[in-house]
Amino acid sequence: MSVETAPGPAVTEARYTPENRAVPTGWPWLLRDSLTEMRRHLRAVPRDPELLVFSSIQPIMFVVLFVYVFGGSIATPGYSSYEQYVVPGIFAQTVLFGSAFTGVGIAEDLSKGFVDRLRSLPMYQSAMLIGRTLSDLVRNVLTFVVMFAVGIAVGFRIEGTAIEAIEATLLLLFFSYAFSWIQAFIGLSVKSVEAANSAGFIWMFPLTFVSSAFVDTSNMPSWLQPIADVNPFTIVTNATRALYNGKDPGNDVWIALAWAIGITAVFAFLSVRKYSHATSR
After folding, report:
1. pLDDT value of residue 185
2. In a domain, 75, yes or no
3. How many CB atoms within 10 Å of residue 259?
4. Cβ atoms 129, 106 nearer than 8 A
5. How many Å apart are CA 193 and CA 107, to the nearest integer?
6. What's the number of domains the chain is made of?
7. Dihedral sign (CA 196, 235, 243, 170)
8. Nearest alpha-carbon partner for 207 in 97, 101, 127
9. Residue 35 domain flag
10. Residue 270 DSSP symbol
11. Average predicted confidence (pLDDT) for the chain
12. Which pLDDT tens digit goes with each residue over 112-132?
């Protein structure tokens, strides 16, 4: 005697297609994808230590040259020594120059076709840019630690409180993060890694030198002083210099924060929009 079973519903093989893949939604997913991208970039740092070494050599040379070559020729009223005046400016220049790696790295990912591969994954598209900027922020922290040690070695001292020094350092790093978004937009806009390298650095030299980073703006020609005074790099340098030296920064801290927030908001929006249309080269 045999028992017949009723035919059940047909079992179909589940297939992974773009139509049924999980769609990323919510801030937790965005944070997870961004941290994954950040870790991907940071894992590459130990494999290329020369990049970190050479990115530290340039600011060290600036410290040595300005302190020992120009230190005896530049007056710094209100400060005990030229080291107390110039080292915070070189701190600011160092973290700003460090933001250029964002544009170069994004241009390199585009040239290698990596961006197209990321687009095929179920992830937030903006996570690639956020992860890249965060990883470069971490690398800037490492460079800043080296620069701080060099500053102490040449005679720079924290004359303010520990809280003021921490505030100054965080302000510098936040400012560098804002400029990483400018560099991200540049990296997405140019057509090669070489162009990203040139375009990322060429505008930062006048921004940093037409400022109060190395000399007081009152020593500049009269037509150049107003430009230097409203330069956002001057504002963040004045704010951090005052905090490191235990002086009253006035409104410079809040103005520098406003600049950093505004730059981040504008260029993050432009970069994400540009990224949505970018293709590998």
Report:
1. 94
2. no
3. 17
4. yes
5. 5
6. 1
7. negative
8. 97
9. no
10. H
11. 83
12. 777 777 777 777 778 889 999
The contacts found for 54-59 with CB under 8 angstroms, 24 or more apart, are 55/98, 55/101, 55/139, 55/143, 56/143, 56/146, 56/147, 58/97, 59/90, 59/93, 59/94, 59/97, 59/143, 59/147, 59/150
pLDDT value at 14 more than 90: no
User: Residue written as tokens 């297939």?
Assistant: 15
Q: What is the DSSP string of 193-230?
A: HHHHHHHHHHTHHHHHHSSSSSS-GGGS-TTTHHHHHH
Phi-psi region of 144 (alpha: psi -120 to 50; beta: other; left: phi over 0): alpha
Tell me the pLDDT tens digit for each residue of 57-96: 777 887 888 888 777 677 777 888 888 999 999 999 988 9
Q: Residue 238 domain-assigned?
A: yes
Residue 9 has pLDDT above 70, yes or no: no
**What is the residue range of 140's domain?**
48-68+82-275
Structure tokens at 155: 């005679």
Q: Which amino acid is at 265?
A: A
What's the CA gap between 257 and 232, in Å, rounded?
Answer: 10
pTM: 0.83
